[in-house]
UniProtKB/TrEMBL annotation:
Domain Histidine kinase positions: 269-486
Species in which this protein is naturally found: Mordavella massiliensis
Name of the featured protein: histidine kinase
Listed transmembrane segments: 30-49, 190-212
UniProt xrefs under SUPFAM superfamilies: ATPase domain of HSP90 chaperone/DNA topoisomerase II/histidine kinase, Homodimeric domain of signal transducing histidine kinase
EC number(s) per entry: 2.7.13.3
The UniProt record lists the keyword Membrane: yes
Tagged with keyword Phosphoprotein: yes
Recorded coiled-coil stretches: none
Keywords carried by this UniProt record: Kinase, Membrane, Phosphoprotein, Transferase, Transmembrane, Transmembrane helix, Two-component regulatory system
Length: 488
């Protein structure tokens, strides 16, 4: 049983290899298609040509016999009767026709009696057949018996007036010569087909190897990506398909390189942002340690600075945790039907005291009641960050205008402010993590550079979009569009 099981395992492995590596190979399929489209049509054409030759040869032979029968019928009918043996000249022509076409000629009168027989076998006997009866009625016949390999032709013999049928001229001719020629042609055609098939097979193998080469080069190029990103992107223009594949691969590789660079930059930024407060705290602590008899006032000032730096570190860590939590829970949205008007009111109620500290007026304008399917926690985080951002980068005695509207498919939230604005060259980067337009000003107001990245992530997770419009020194407007119905 163990040997049998081993054999079965080997057979199964061979089948899998053949199925995965041979049948699944593009080269094999190209070879198979070329062979099929080259050899099979040739085989069909061979059969059609040979069949056409046989049909044509039989038709030509039949036409020749019918012509000869017409001539002999005219000579036989000139006597006016078929009673008795024909004269010697007509008998000679009958025998000559029999010899030429390797057949047998019978002359039958209107009483179905055989008057002449080139084989001298049936003279005086009665022959009644459907073809003879039809011919006596004035309709000549011709028939090819493929199984027995002969052609039979009947032709009516008319009297000199052409009104009465005196008898029938029946000719049976062998088609052995046609069959012999057909056999020779079949043999030659088989040799030609085999030769052609071999040539097609060789060409198919060559074509298969040549056509697959561009894909092999693509495979090597893709494999080389594992060694790192380089500037030598894929450029395979052998076919339209390989060109399209190369362009798609290059776009993907470019995107991967951007993501890799972004990840590296993100790690660097995180390290820098976390290191800066730690460095400040270390400097403050070292200053206290190196001084003797530190006054209470200075001690309290340094401890206040340490507390600020710790708070800054805490903000950065909390924002990072928010981003990480969003990334992890992107596929586990807690979707519920929420009153968006009430949600925005709750957020603004919490943030108005912060805005009031800088004498910034916060106005909320709702055009209609809005109910939507959202993740309340994530959407609140997005709206809070947008409004907080508007407060942080606003001017003293400024204003913030929040508006809510909806149509049959989306709801729209707009946060506009009278703040410092965003330079045009920075517009495409503001949603990047740790990107800040004015780093020094951001540090003064406690910005971490993660607020807009968090807001955008939350909006995108709701299948929404966020856009920004801004003019330097005149203010900024963020527009959020989110579907009323969450689509998985």
């Amino acid at each position: 049983m163990s040997i049998q099981n081993g054999v079965l395992v080997i057979i199964s492995g061979v089948k899998r290899y053949f199925s995965n590596h041979i049948l699944g190979s593009l080269r094999f399929r190209i070879i198979l298609l070329v062979v099929l489209f080259g050899a099979v049509p040739a085989l069909i054409m061979q059969a059609v040509i040979l069949n056409s030759y046989e049909t044509r040869a039989v038709d030509v032979r039949t036409a020749e016999i019918q012509n000869q029968c017409t001539i002999l019928c005219n000579q036989l009918g000139s006597r006016g009767t078929l009673n008795g043996r024909a004269d010697e000249s007509i008998q000679t022509e009958l025998v000559q026709m029999s010899n030429i076409y390797d057949g047998r000629v019978l002359v039958i009168d209107n009483n179905f009696q055989v008057e002449e027989d080139t084989y001298d076998m049936d003279i005086g006997r009665t022959i009644v057949s459907a073809d003879v009866i039809r011919c006596l009625e004035g309709t000549g016949t011709s028939r090819y018996d493929e199984e027995n390999a002969y052609i039979e032709v009947t032709s009516p013999v008319y009297d000199p007036s052409g009104e009465h049928v005196l008898g029938v001229l029946l000719v049976s001719v062998s088609t052995d010569s046609i069959e012999d020629n057909l056999a020779v042609l079949t043999g030659k055609a088989a040799v030609a087909w085999i030769t052609m098939t071999l040539v097609v097979l060789v060409l198919a193998f060559l074509l298969g190897f040549v056509m697959v080469k561009p894909f092999q080069r693509i495979t090597r190029s893709i494999s080389a990506v594992t060694e790192g990103y380089g500037d030598n992107y894929l450029k395979e223009n052998a076919y339209t398909e390989t060109r399209a594949l190369s362009e798609a691969f290059n776009r993907m590789l470019g995107r991967m390189k951007v993501l890799d660079d972004s990840r590296t930059e993100f790690v660097s930024n995180v390290s820098h942002e976390l290191k800066t407060p730690l460095t400040s705290m270390k400097v403050l602590a070292d200053s206290l340690l190196t001084q003797e008899n530190v006054p209470v006032e200075l001690y309290q000032e340094f401890m206040g600075d340490l507390s600020e730096e710790i708070e800054r570190e805490n903000k950065i860590i909390n924002d990072l945790l928010s981003l990480v939590k969003m990334d992890k829970t992107a596929n586990t949205m807690n979707i519920t039907s929420e009153n968006i008007n009430a949600l925005v009111e709750r957020i603004l109620k919490r943030l108005r005291p912060i805005a009031a500290a800088r004498n910034i007026e916060v106005i909320f304008e709702s055009f209609r009641p809005v109910t939507a399917e959202v993740d309340e926690v994530k959407l609140s985080l997005a709206i809070s960050n947008l409004v907080e951002n508007a407060i942080k980068y606003n001017k003293e005695n400024g204003w913030i205008h929040v508006s809510l509207n909806a149509d049959h498919k989306y709801f729209y939230l707009e946060v506009a402010d009278s703040g410092i604005g965003i330079p045009e060259e920075s517009m495409e980067h503001i949603f990047e993590r740790f990107y800040r337009v004015d780093k020094s000003h951001s540090r003064e107001i406690g910005g971490t550079g993660l607020g807009l990245a968090i807001a955008r992530s939350a909006v995108v997770m709701h299948r929404g979009a966020v856009k920004v419009y801004s003019q330097l020194g005149e203010g900024t407007t963020f527009t959020v569009r989110i579907p009323l119905t969450y689509v998985m």
